[in-house]
Amino acid sequence: MGYFIRGRIPAEEKNPLNRFLIALYRPLLEGALRRPKTVLLAAVVILAATLWPMNRLGGEFMPPLDEGDLLYMPSALPGLSAGKASELLQQTDG
Prior knowledge:
The structure is a single chain. By secondary structure, the chain is mainly α. The protein has 3 helices and no strands. It has helices at residues 16-34, 36-56, 82-93. It is elongated and about 75 Å long.
């Protein structure tokens, strides 16, 4: 935002962009407040219309997974000798 907002910032009522956005938003807000049941019904219809696509999303992009193998990666203290680490790995692999 620092690149876009330079100099003195005009007051909220004098900012032309703010006045435009308020003029655009106010009729929508007043219409929604006049008909709250219609707005709620429209929201429920939109939600219901998205349920089927939402359940299908991701299925075609998911590759088949072979989850039969687990990787076990033991950790040891930093001062452990190479021989002891090798012995530890052999014990845990078996």
